[in-house]
Amino acid sequence: MAAGNVVAAALFLFLATSALLVAGDDPYRFFTWTVTYGDITPLGVKQQGILINGQFPGPTIEAVTNDNLIINVFNKLNDPFLISWNGIQQRRNSFEDGVAGTTCPIPPGGNFTYILQVKDQIGTYFYFPSLAFHKAAGGFGAIRVLSRPMIPVPFPPPAADYPLLIGDWYKANHTDLKYMLDSGKALGFPDGLLINGRSWDGYTFNVQQGRTYRFRISNVGLSTSLNIRFQGHTMTLVEVEGSHTMQTTYSSLDVHLGQSYSVLLTADQPAYDYAVVVSTRFTSKIISTTAVLRYSGSGGKSPAALPGGPTIQIDWSLNQARSIRWNLTASGPRPNPQGSYHYGMVTTTRTIRLASSSATVNGKQRYAVNGVSHVNPDTPLKVADYYKIAGVFSVGTISDSPSGGGGGGAYLQTAVMGASYRDYVEIVFENPENEVQSWHIDGYAFWVVGMDGGKWSSASRQGYNLRDAVSRYTVQMKYNKQTNTSLSLVLCSDHHDLTHKLCLFHQVYPNSWTAIYMPLDNVGMWNVRSENWARQYLGQQFYLRVWTSSTSWRDEYPIPKNALLCGRAAGRRTRPL
After folding, report:
1. DSSP 3-state assignment of 499?
2. CATH of 150-336, one of 3.40.50.10330, 3.30.365.10, 2.60.40.420, 3.30.300.330
3. pLDDT score of 11 more than 80
4. Does the keyword ATP-binding apply (predicted)?
5. Are 167 and 193 a contacting pair, CB within 8 Å?
6. With b meaning 16 or more CB within 10 Å and e meaning fewer, what string describes 393-420?
7. Where are the domains of the chain?
């Protein structure tokens, strides 16, 4: 037997015989990744990139609902390293989430095997390096989770399924960018945009006339909302972050930080090379880049002009947001229709209001949630919680509502909010600032039930969409700083029609809010963060501790047997092998 097969077989036996935290009847997929530094030149300037198996971006993970993913990561960097899995819910197993509050870093020269299961999930996701400012150097890649063969999908199989990772990029090395933030300086405007790690016409998608293709679009950038369009073609939206949507056609699509979309594109034009155009949104200057959509037998570049896109138009973006609706009759990861769960008929048990803010602390720029700017302790919160190590964190160090209206200063604190397992919460994200905000919650998907300008109040619930809001894991709030005018999206009901409609109107508001409903059905320690990576790095995040007194594995798995232990947990034992 070949050496590689011996290693794989031994690992499989270890996993299978150690009462692993995954379903024994579901398939296993094994990956071995070596993480190294390497020279990359995405914008024509040599810089230090983070490569996975020599690739930038990293390899695509393809899985099927309920697959077990065994990912052995060897860290050849000179820094501690972790990978997190954007949108993968880590059911009952936040130890594997791969962020500073849940998982001890892989030391330089060390390795760690992630043991994940894409339990009851389908759709489009991505992974990324979560520590320091590594995300600015690469180390990210696409994840696609396909439906099981017996589960109906609401569109025919595409001719090909392409990952399409878009994002802003800086020419400076990630270490220099981190130093800037640590020194209290802003990153400034990005130097360019990338499509699958390449700049202008550096990446090609091959298509054949008459066939339909699926493109899985994710914004993996650091600071900028983006718009994407295909020259001479339209897109049909079919999935958003694990939810099948009503199939609406778009000529271009806004993709905010951390968001993912799946679209179908039919190659129905004459055989030329067409441009895939990506450009910035809501920025003082507009930058763009292109990839190539190449037909088989192409006669060269299309003679048509490149398609223009929206720039600072908030109304355009909100009008598009209002059109994205949950497909109530389509199956999700299970055969029953997505709409069989009536999220709007469940009574909420708690309201959490979260306000972002910018502040100067000790003479340096920081960002905060409800006045608290998070700092990571010396021991991951989840590890400290498991071993009951005192002094690492306290539950309740961040309030569930803003103090003083959400403005003012901030203070440094390890921020942990407590919550009870099986509660059904309403979370309102309040944005008093002059930029688009994008938020992500690890371990969960949620329903975006309402957006509006001004201040949220209990009366705002009258406009909630309680029928067919999309379930997703990233939400954005918008603000038009150029005109001090926010265009507000309101979900309103027509009493003569039981379906909910969306209304778009102009108001002069200095702020806005977005409300979500979320069932707390996943015990663990979960990161709630800004997807603007500088804001996240400088404190705009906290951890939601979803707790139960139960010790049953049906509610939460114990610490993995192979878990790395660090900080105040160093020298302890996990569980007997």
Report:
1. strand
2. 2.60.40.420
3. no
4. no
5. yes
6. beeebbbbebeeebeeebeebbbbbebe
7. 25-146, 150-336, 350-480+511-559
CATH number of this structure's domain 25-146: 2.60.40.420
Enter the tokens of residue 194.
């990338």
Q: Which two tokens stand for residue 190?
A: 């990005």
pLDDT score of 354 more than 50? yes
150-336 matches 350-480+511-559 in fold: yes
For 20, residues 6+ apart whose C-beta sits below 8 A from its C-beta are: 68, 115
pLDDT of residue 451: 86
| The CATH number, out of the four listed (2.60.40.420, 3.30.700.20, 1.10.1140.10, 1.10.287.770), of the domain defined by the range 350-480+511-559 | 2.60.40.420
Q: What is the DSSP letter of 538?
A: T
Position 19, amino acid: A
* pLDDT digits 0-9 by tens, 253-282: 999 999 999 999 999 999 999 999 999 999
Strand pairing report for 212-219 and 161-169: parallel
Distance of alpha carbon 135 from alpha carbon 309, whole angstroms: 27
3-state SS assignment for residue 10: helix
Could you give the CA distance from residue 268 to residue 270 in angstroms, rounded to a whole number?
7
In the numeric block, which tokens belong to residue 342? 């009536």
What is the structure's pLDDT at 478?
A: 60
Q: What would the DSSP string read from start to end of 195-259?
A: ETTB-TT--EEEE-TT-EEEEEEEE--SS--EEEEETT--EEEEEETTEEEEEEEESEEEE-TT-
Preceding omega of 402 cis (within 30 degrees of 0):
no
Percent of the chain with pLDDT over 90: 82
Whether residue 54 has pLDDT greater than 90: yes
pLDDT digits (tens, 9 = 90+) for 506-558: 222 237 889 999 999 999 999 999 999 999 999 999 999 999 999 999 999 99
Nearest partner of 105 among 383, 412, 392, 415, judged by Cα: 383
- Enumerate helices (H) and strands (E) in the chain, giving the number of each: 5, 34
